[in-house]
Amino acid sequence: MGPFIATFVYFAISIVIILIGLALFANITRKYKDMDQVKEGNQAVALSIAGKIMGIGVILAFAIYNSDVIYETVIWGAYGVVLQMVAYVLFELLTRKFSVEEQLLKDNRAVGIISMAVSIGLGFVIGASIT
């Protein structure tokens, strides 16, 4: 496969995986709809979503770099989305003094920034572990 075609295929696969990941994340937030909050200008939710996009993107970048065939990238990308979801649930469970979801709904940007950092940071950890 030529490099231009391969790049386009990886690009298309990455968009699909990121969109599926965002849809799955949207289904685990029960107190609000992600895009409705973004439309209303909720910056904390936007930061959290941006972190998810970047975290999944980092995982996909490592997957592309370390995979010999396209289907391996898809498998690693899907696995990365699942691990990112686990990280989000653990982040919610480990913050006992407040609900991350409620704070994001209240546009608490500090929580949005931490949520973003968790997604990006763990994206690097997950990505670096891809062999």
Short description:
The protein is mainly alpha-helical and 131 residues long. The protein has helices spanning 3-28, 34-39, 43-66, 70-94, 100-105, 109-128. The mean pLDDT is 93.
Would you write up a description of this structure?
With 131 residues, the protein is mainly alpha-helical. It contains 6 helices and no strands. α3 packs parallel to α6. The longest helix has 26 residues. It starts with a helix and ends with a helix. The mean pLDDT is 93.
Question: Could you give the topology of this structure?
Answer:
Elements: H1 3-28, H2 34-39, H3 43-66, H4 70-94, H5 100-105, H6 109-128
Helix pairs in contact: 1-3, 1-4, 3-4, 3-6, 4-6
Amino-to-carboxy terminus distance: 22 Å
By helix and strand content, what is the structural category?
Answer: mainly alpha
Helix content: over 70%
Order of helices and strands: HHHHHH
Low-confidence stretches: none
Number of strands: 0
Largest sheet, in brief, is: none
| pLDDT averaged over residues | 93
Shape: elongated
Report the C-alpha radius of gyration, rounded: 15 Å
Please tally the helical runs, counting DSSP H or I stretches of 4 or more residues.
6
Q: What fraction strand?
A: under 5%
